[in-house]
Amino acid sequence: MATRLPLFPLGTVLVPGLVLPLHIFEPRYRVLVEALMALPEGATRQFGIVAIRTGHEVGEGNATALHAVGCIAELREVTPYSDGRFDIVTVGEGRFRVVGLDEAAGTPYLTGLVELIDEPDGEGDLEALTDRVVEQFAEYRAVLDVDVTELPDDPRVVSSLVAAAVILDLP
């Protein structure tokens, strides 16, 4: 079943469990942050980060196509400025698939119709698979001549950290 979720198209990908700070300066996203802050105390303040397939982040006619999968961003910190801008800190939660746009939402920002993506653990020996990913990631970082830090044992955390740390083009 589809759920309505405010969308924030970006030229980057948010990964579950990781932090993404953002500087909010466009009027439509100021409205989004204000709407989230107006929610009752204790309410979940979330929106969707979805990567731009074609177009750009800022201005009229910006994002003309979005990727199908995004990540829920939970708003954790807000620093307002006197001119209406905000610095915010978000944390990636679960992933979602965009199944449509709510054209009648009546907001200056996009509102998506999304379905949450289940995050199954997978099959097979997860410990062995995680160990192999950690080894290959260490080799990758050694080629880049970057210090290798120890990764945690949790397979989901390893997959998110590695996905966020590798240098890849968006496509």
Description:
It is a single chain. The chain has 171 residues and is α+β, with helices and mostly antiparallel strands. The protein folds into two domains: 114 residues, Archaeosine Trna-guanine Transglycosylase, Chain: A, domain 4 (Roll); 40 residues. Helix content is 23%, strand content 37%. The chain has three helices and six strands. Strands 1-3-4-5-6 form a five-stranded mixed β-barrel. Strand 3 and strand 4 form a beta hairpin. Helix 2 packs parallel to helix 3. The longest helix is centred in the C-terminal third of the chain and has 18 residues. The radius of gyration is 18 Å and the shape is globular.
A few lines on this structure:
With 171 residues, the protein is of the alpha+beta class. It folds into two domains: 3-116, LON domain-like (Archaeosine Trna-guanine Transglycosylase, Chain: A, domain 4, Roll); 126-165.
What is the count of helical runs?
3
How is the CATH topology of the largest domain named? Archaeosine Trna-guanine Transglycosylase, Chain: A, domain 4
Top CATH class of the largest domain = Mainly Beta
State the fourth-level CATH superfamily of the largest domain. LON domain-like
Indicate the mean pLDDT.
87
Strand fraction:
35-45%
Q: Roughly how much helix do the residues carry, as a percent range? A: 10-25%
The total tally of domains equals 2
Widest sheet: strand ordering: 1-3-4-5-6
CATH architecture of the largest domain: Roll
Number of strands: 6
- The structure class reads alpha+beta
Shape category: globular
